Amino acid sequence: MAYIQEEDRKYLEEQFSKLEKDVTLRLFTRREGCSTCQVEQELMEELAGISDRLSLSVHDLDAEPELGRRYQVDKVPALIVEGERDYGIRFYGIPSGYEFASLIEDILDVGRGTVDLPEQVRQGLGEIDRDIHIQVFVTPACPYCPVAVRTAHKFAMLSERVRADMVMANEFPILADHYQVMAVPKVVINETTSFEGAVPEEVFLDRILHG
Predict the structure, then answer these.
(1) Of 93, 112, 131, which one is at a domain's C-terminal end?
(2) Which of 62, 89, 161, 163 makes an SS bond possible with 81, Cβ 3.0 to 4.6 Å?
(3) Domain shared by 61 and 99, yes or no
(4) How far apart are CA 157 and CA 107, in angstroms?
(5) 9 neighbors 49 (Cβ within 8 angstroms)
(6) How far apart are CA 148 and CA 113, in angstroms?
């Protein structure tokens, strides 16, 4: 079964031709207890096959717990977009619907080594002096969610202090209930600060710095 339609494949071939560096899609799965792992693996295999610059590495979290701890992965399916280093970009749950575009844009950023952010925001990220963990709860049908996900992932790419997760709320209902996710996108920062909605990059940064 093909997940990527021919027209979309041609578009992705064109986009991935712009990649200047190799990108690894590192996928953590489980053989049991994960109803979506196989689907995501098949989708990522198909995606990685579009460009020689893309490769897929699949790991069983139960069989490789040390690797999971190294990447701070605690649930599956978990997808990491990795380039010259681990930028802290995470997708928990299948990046489907609108979030598939977030994944593609992340691949392009990592593969080109560039991030489009205002200079003021770049300077602010440079001032972060503690580890920041951002969780962005989303659903596949939310058109505003990719804005929040992309902002968080851009921050992670520019700052080694930031780790940013997209969390598909419908795939992790217990986690969504724990953080009282009533609307998406919902952003949780270091367990202490949260807000809803897609906000400008400057506002997002301010929530991190003063949260």
Answers:
(1) 112
(2) 89
(3) yes
(4) 11
(5) no
(6) 20
How many domains does the chain fold into? 2
Q: CA–CA separation, 167 vs 187, rounded Å?
A: 10
* Same domain membership, residue 131 and residue 102: no
CA distance 92 to 100: 12
CB 56 within 8 A of CB 148: no
What share of the chain has pLDDT > 70, as a percent?
100
Q: Which of 26, 194, 165 is nearest to 102 (CA)?
A: 165
Look at the block and give the residue holding tokens 């602010």.
Answer: 124
User: Do residues 101 and 124 share a domain?
Assistant: no
Q: Are residues 98 and 135 in the same domain?
A: no
Task: Give 172-211 pLDDT, tens digit per residue.
Answer: 999 999 999 999 999 999 999 999 999 999 999 999 998 7
In this structure, what is the dihedral angle of CA atoms 164, 169, 170, 175, given to the nearest 10 degrees?
A: 110
Q: What's the pTM?
A: 0.96
User: Which structural domain range is residue 182 located in?
Assistant: 119-210
- On whether both 82 and 143 belong to a single domain, the answer is no
Structure tokens at 112: 């080109």
